Amino acid sequence: MSKKEKRKLFLYSYLKNRNLMLGTVIVLAVVLIALFSDWIAPYNFDDANLAPKFTRPCAEFPFGTDEFGRDMFSRVIYGSRIALRVAVLAMLIEIVLGVSIGLLSGYYGGNLDRVLSFLSDLTWSMPPIIMSMAVITVLGKSIDNVIIAIAVVSWAQYARVVRAKTQSLKNMAFVETGIAFNEKDISIMSFYILPNIIPPIIVLASLSIPSTIMSTTALSFLGLGAQPPSPDWGLALSSSMSHIATAPWLAIFPGIALVLTVFGFNLFGEGLRDLLDPRLKSR
Amino acid sequence: MAGYITKRLVQGIMLVFVVSILVFAMMDMMPGDPIELLTDRKVTDEVKDRLRAQYGLDQPPVKRYFNWVNDVLHGDFGTSIRTKMKVNTMLAQRLPITIKLTGTALLIELLIAIPIGLLAAYKKDGFFDRLIMSTSVFFAALPSFWVAVMLILIFGVTLRVLPLSGFSGVKHYVLPITAMVLGGIATTIRMTKTEVLDVLREKYILTAYAKGLPKRKVLVRHVLRNALILVTIMVFLNIPWVISGAVIIERIFVIPGMGNMLTEAILNQDFTIVQACVLLISILTVVCNIVCDVITAILDPRIRISLGGEGR
Fold first, then answer.
1. Tens of pLDDT along A250-261?
2. Is any Cβ of chain A less than 8 angstroms from the Cβ of B282?
């Protein structure tokens, strides 16, 4: 099959997969909303006293207002920025950590591999929320520390996959040719092996985004992440708890935004996995 | 077999050892001197030094680590810096609540999820399967804390049939457990389906059909029996996850369990409690993983044979 035909086939199966398409649309919408929050949101997220506090959803304030008379619609819009920023930054740190550790331990093997694999098995087996909470205890509560905490506890999934792939690629003829031509280890790893493990990395990354968003909002919900007046969805949900009887809209809208985003990224990630790396499906 | 179990045990002990060092080091690096946090400016330096000595904070880190491990091995998790209570006493009050809560939630979740997963796998691509799979994609996107908030809104605020928070009677269990079950059920259903599909693809199932066994008998005698392995695996693999899920649920429903204690301790920078909780949950995770591996090895003849072949 020529490259062009391959691309055509990829595009065809992409467009035919209804779940993947729906996921793509939702993901694109969330990304656009996050990028253009300033244009879309009618007010700034911390503009207070726009209306009497706890105004019911109406034409001017579609999601109502909160206990400071802030427009919930604008806050939910701006909240998408925080969710995506955390997800993308945490993902990048995880990829850098996980891929380099996986490459090193798969390529060199031996004692280095034993130590690194032990570390990644350790982080892999522990419940991430508890471990992130422990890391936040040390670093202090803030949304940036949440990024670090999540990255520190979830790099292992990349390391495991990259390690296994590197081990099998190491003995392939083209890599051995490179070694025979006296290429440096670092260039073997980055120019021979790395390009071949990009598809599974993309799949893992897109699958990890929804769980990262869930953990972030959970930590913010507990008061360990974003701090007021941040429009973070988790924080919004936790502060809505004290007004649940009088202003239920404060709990409903940020929650719907969160669920839709996670739902979209799930569909997108799973669709991409089926397309790029069907073997991962059975896990 | 015995060799395999010993190997897993040694691995487990090593994991716990490394975790204990990490947990200790993390809390040791915590910003802010706990004594400064506790006392106000009026307290003299001598009193602060005496307090430091009392909590053993004046000794070098390695010494303090071994003191701590020694205490923990003797079942003493130290004294909370904030509440001045023994961590043991606090745990003794709170742990049973968490265990009751998570145990019930786990049981209900499995009782619902396993039959559904089994049916979905058996009638793969049928109406029921497609219905379940598409709803489970949606349920997987529901964070348990939002489910909890919505349950409070529907049953507590609007219908007023169930209490919003607190923990005294059976009624208080209903909403938190429902939220926990709904939060985790989608993953469990999907896992069950995948595993059962794997069993259905095995050659011995084909053999069973080939010798003329009716469908129902194959399902009960061969598939279900192997699904038993699956159930045990899922129980043990799920325990750490259910417990970490309880952290959030306990917070929402103001349940005085271990999860809530951990959150409060982090918010108050009460490091002895954080150490104790994180260590306990880590040990639990390691133990569950080992038990899971050992049970699989005993129940699954393929693993048992391969271990018998090379392990001895």
1. 889 999 999 999
2. yes
Domains defined for chain A, CATH in brackets:
3-41+62-280 (1.10.3720.10)
CATH of domain B100-267: 1.10.3720.10
Q: Which residues contact residue A193 at a Cβ distance below 8 angstroms, ignoring those fewer than 6 apart?
A: A103, A107, A165, A166, A169, A170, A175
Return the closest-CA partner of residue A196 out of A215, A172, A225: A172
For B274, other C-beta atoms within 10 Å of its C-beta total 24
Q: Tokens 């120019």 label which residue?
A: A191
| pLDDT tens sequence across A75-134 | 999 999 999 999 999 999 999 999 999 999 999 988 999 999 988 888 888 888 888 998
Q: Would you say the pTM of this structure is higher than 0.90?
A: no
Q: Where do runs of H (alpha helix) occur along A140-228?
A: 143-154, 156-170, 173-180, 185-187, 198-221
Question: Which positions 19-38 of A are in contact with B (Cβ < 8 Å)?
Answer: 19
Domain extents for chain B? 1-82+269-312, 100-267
Q: What 3-state class would DSSP assign to A65?
A: strand
Angle made by CA atoms A6, A9, A11, in degrees to the nearest 5? 110
> What is the Cα–Cα distance from A240 to B254, expressed in whole angstroms?
15
Interface probe for A, chosen from B14, B146, B249 (most Cβ of A below 10 Å), is B146
Beta bridge partners of A65: A71
Suggest the residue from B149, B268, B272 to mutate for an interface test with chain A (most A CBs closer than 10 A).
B149
Interface of B with A in 198-227 (CB under 8 A): 198
